[in-house]
Each structure stands twice: as structure tokens, then as C-alpha cells.
Write a structure and sequence with these properties.
155 residues, alpha/beta, seven-stranded mixed β-sheet, binds flavin mononucleotide
């Protein structure tokens, strides 16, 4: 059987969501996980081919104006119709960086992803307020959980 595929799509303007994304990728690429290929794309570059390639995906964005970032919205706008009806309940998870809230970024992504009929398999990692690098371990765990779940055939 071929390798499973895990896609991570993220956007960051001032860098803190990038730190979270790097930790998610680190966890996903954990050397104890076999048979899972990990692809990390910027939300500005990711395509419907990336989303259709994956067996599970993780999206990461800052919250801007009570919503996901414009770049993440642009990604979902570009891929939605090409992927609609083709995602077969694939697993996903979210991570969000916010100045003080984050709930709008999470709910806006969930609302669009509902239309793709995909399945959220982990609670989002939300780092709000002062950036706490100690919480990057949760991002690493998120990446590892999705990758290990694919390896185990759970997702
Ligand atoms: C234009 C703009 C709008 C923002 N709106 C929100 C917001 O609605 N809620 C919030 O909690 N933080 C808000 N923030 C704060 C960002 O979420 C925060 O600065 C975050 O760290 C940015 O992530 P980044 O470093 O990956 O770019 C906003 C920041 C910018 C630049």
C-alpha cells in the first residue's frame, strides 16, 4: 500500500503563525511515524491539487478582523468548487494565532469546511494573547496526532 498524505496549509503575516506551522510540521514529520508523506504549503500557493492529494489536512491562520486571514480565505475560495464532493470525509484540524480572541477565525474556517464534508478530528490549537512559545508543543502534538492517525488507519 502507498504512503498516506498529510497536507499543512498556513499563512502568517508577522511570523507567529509560522512558528506554530513549523511546530506542526515537525510533529507530523516525527521519525517514529512511517508511511506518511508531509507537504507544507503557504495559503498563497496551495492549490486544489494539494487538497485532493491529501488524506488529511491541517490549516493554520492568524485571526484578522474576527475572521481567518485573507490569504486563507483566498485559498478556500480558489479550491472550494474543485474539491466539493471529492473529499470523502477526510480528517482535518486547525491552528490559530490571535491577538486576543481567535473564535472568529475558527468558526469561519469550520463554516466553509462544512461545505466540503470533511471531519474535524482534533480540537484546534489556539494561541491568543502574548505569544507563549511553551505552547508550541501542542502544535507539534497536533501534527504528530494527525500523522500517527493516518499511519494507524484511524483517519
Ligand atoms: C489587520 C489585523 C487584524 C487583526 N484582527 C484581530 C482580531 O480580530 N482578533 C484578534 O484576536 N487578533 C487580531 N489581530 C492580531 C493578530 O491575530 C495577531 O497579531 C497575530 O499574531 C498575527 O499572526 P502572525 O504573526 O502569524 O501574522 C489582528 C492583526 C492584524 C494585523
Amino acid at each position: 500500500m502507498g504512503n498516506k498524505h498529510l497536507l499543512i496549509v498556513s499563512h502568517s503575516q508577522s511570523g507567529s503563525t509560522s512558528l506554530m506551522a513549523d511546530a506542526v510540521v515537525r510533529g507530523a514529520a516525527n521519525e517514529d511515524v512511517d508511511g506518511v508523506d508531509v507537504r507544507h504549503r503557504s495559503a498563497l500557493d496551495a492549490t486544489s491539487e494539494d487538497l485532493l492529494w491529501c488524506d488529511a489536512f491541517i490549516l493554520g491562520t492568524p485571526e484578522n478582523f474576527g475572521y481567518m486571514s485573507g490569504a486563507m480565505k483566498h485559498f478556500l475560495d480558489r479550491v472550494f468548487y474543485e474539491c466539493e464532493g471529492k473529499m470523502d470525509g477526510r480528517a482535518f484540524a486547525l491552528f490559530v494565532r490571535a491577538g486576543n480572541d481567535g473564535s472568529g477565525a475558527i468558526s469561519s474556517m469550520r463554516r466553509i469546511l462544512k461545505g466540503l464534508a470533511v471531519k474535524e478530528v482534533q480540537d484546534p490549537v489556539l494561541i491568543a494573547g502574548k505569544f507563549d512559545a511553551a505552547r508550541l508543543g501542542e502544535c507539534e502534538a497536533l501534527g504528530l496526532t494527525l500523522a500517527a492517525g493516518l499511519e494507524a488507519g484511524i483517519f
